[in-house]
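Consortium newsletter contribution from the modelling node. Members have asked for a concrete example of what our holo predictions look like. Here is one, prepared for the Double cubane cluster complex that several groups have been discussing at recent meetings.
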Amino acid sequence: MSEDYREMWGSLGLNLEAHQGLLAVLSDAYQGIYLSQENRPAAMQYFDFVVSEVHGLRIVELLKAKSEGKLVVGTFCVYVPEELILAVDGVSIGLCAGADVGTEEAEKFMPRNTCALIKGFMGFKLAGLCPYVESADLIIGETTCDGKKKAYEIFDEITKKVYVMELPNKKSDDGRLLWRHEIERLAEKLTAVTGKEIALDRLKEASRVVDAKRRALQRLSDARAHDPAPISGLDALLINQISFYDDPIRFTGKLNELCDELDERVRRGVGVAPKGTPRLLISGSPMAIPNWKLHSIIEQSGGIVVGEEACVGERNFRDLLGDFSTVDEAIGKMADRSIGINCACFTPNDGRLADINDMSQRLHSQGVVHYALQFCTPYLVEAHGAKNSVEAAGLPFLRIETDYSMEDVGQLKTRVEAFLEIVRQGRPS
Ligand code: BJ8
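And here is the predicted structure:
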């Protein structure tokens, strides 16, 4: 951190000693995992800077926005339409959930067999380690998996800030209608809290900003289809993680600069790993920052990750909202766009199987690693269908179930190395 932010963290009620310890661990991990990579694009410097200021400068910006009367809204899921938050001049931020912190505190409220992501967001709050949750005026939850929806009840008891959107379980006509009503209800809630109506011109501007961000993320994804890959999977994952909490206009500008550099690399045949390096697609549970575990194991074992069929990845940016001429039409489009996301919380969810195979083809992936957090029942169960579908398409498949701890890294590395050998030989596992 370039400045001393202790006063600010203290005023937010963080546990200063524990927070200092967390930042020290993160900085070491970043050094070891990110800064030790070779031949990174020069434009990654901006994203390195953002990470170094994740609990510093960005929080200063959020507090400044609050002092100007803007609403800071924390979210946990890509079903929450960012456009609506921006249309009331709000700031949308993804909340901390990607590290094993405050587990002991979280387990006082949640069963031990709860996924690491849920224990992570509870733990960050309970241990006084998340300046985002403290800065947020409103936290939007959703009825996705059972763990999350029940955790939000307790999270609201603790923070008094949670508003929950009801997501259907099925993509039926009734399900779509329910979801459309939920988006209308969220619009009313945002208007009630801010006193600002959702006006067409503001919504159009918000949509332009969010779609531009999605387009830049699509460019990044397209660049990864090349061999040699112009950027590591680790760096691409980091950019996707940052897309949830950086200022969207600045982020889009910087990402487009990076993509220009990647296009140039592709033209010159420059890669971060030699041409012919085994290419893997990851599919499954989201990887919130600073969860870099699986990408780092794969890339340190001689493979390269070329895409993420995940919410911190393709599901977040694949579809644009596009143009509309009334607020009502925009709300209908928001409902259709987000319900097109193939999260394992839906049944049936065959669209996800098609997405995995489409991405594998487009990104020239030679194998699929299915990643599910321990106790994440929706994704753990869907691994069965994903395996059948990927193998039927002729690609090898590896199923990983893990958490945020480092205890199984050795074992995972052995399995990934064996899988990469299978991929090199070009045969299904
Ligand atoms: S749209 S994936 S962001 S719900 S890892 S908490 S599913 S037990 S996060 Fe998700 Fe929205 Fe779906 Fe995406 Fe539950 Fe699994 Fe934990 Fe999870």
